Amino acid sequence: MLKLALIVLIILAIFTIQTQKMRHAVVYLGAFSLTISFVYLLYNAPDVAIAEAIIGSTLSTILYLVALQKYKIFTVYYCLSEEEFKDQSHLTTEHLQFNKLLDKYCAKQELEPQIIYTVDNVDTIKAHHQYALIVLNESSHITIWGHPENYKLDSIIAFFDSEIHFKIPIEFIKVEEVIE
Amino acid sequence: MRRKSIALFCLISFVIMILSTTVPEQVTYDISNHYIENAYAETGATNVVTSIYLVYRYYDTLFEALMFLFSIIGVVYLSIHEGDELDE
Amino acid sequence: MNDHSDLISKTLPITYPFVLLFGIYIVVNGHVTPGGGFQGGAVIASILILKYLIDPSVETSLKKIRTIEKLALLLIFLFPLGFLLTFIHLQFPMFNCSYLILMNLLISIKVACGMSIIFIRFVFYETR
Fold first, then answer.
1. Residue A31 lies in domain
2. Residue to substitute from C27, C28, C31, C76, interface B, most B β-carbons within 10 A
3. pTM (2 decimals)?
């Protein structure tokens, strides 16, 4: 019985390491916690088994799932001028193409894009809201602001560099961190 | 390349350490036998684990509780952002 | 997690009294059966985590939990100082049982409050 449980432990650990998606790894870790709690019981340590079952299975798994969920949402603020905001059929083809590229990027990285159309200017958004990207659509090019600690910014830059069909030049500005 | 050499070094030193530890034949566990035999008579608890962490080694429990408080202080401090009411 | 699951939000309010009872049972019988303060405290803390599973958008106020936890820590410090470290427990062995139960209860209160503070603080406040 003990040997069987130990072999199951090793199998679960190997599954955890080589899986591609994060959610599957979290579920495997939860099953691992449950099995090792059973192994503690077989080693005549019931107090440790209770504590491991509670903390490893319940608390730790929920914390991981909440953390994964929080990083999934990708907020893009889109700055428009007043007349464009009121009449949204004015959206140009570049705008739609940009939207489609953004959706493609988010689908590749398993993120959920959340696009907010706003009339505020860039500084108010930087000061008051939590953003991942701020996009400003000017006549000749598109300016994108991003925080340098957002590790997705580099992959977005690489993604847009590799898209050769998108003709409009994009300028990326990295926002400096303001420490008060 | 560097990572692999570090991993190999750790593995070899682990194997060497395992092979070079010797356990003496006659190990006297006087104090653990004393705890197991006298726990019920001295403390009135059938569960030996409870009697150890509440009576015989109470200092460890005390500082464990204190360390727990420190970890809570750390978590609360590191998750304060501007705009929060600092009393929460 | 935009729409709440009906199954969870309707069954968990029925089952949480049993979880609470089970947790208190583990704590109070800590000196006879396996268990004790730390384990029972973790079981009771999981109830407050369940509250997050039911409705993830409700914010709970942490002020009361923090005062309870500080009070429990103070009692954990003071109470056995008078009982154990002055060696009164050798002269009055009849109070041993109640000392064990009281200490287990205090430790479980502290652990439950602490874990729920860590969880709530992480989940509700980490986004900003």
1. 2-70
2. C31
3. 0.74
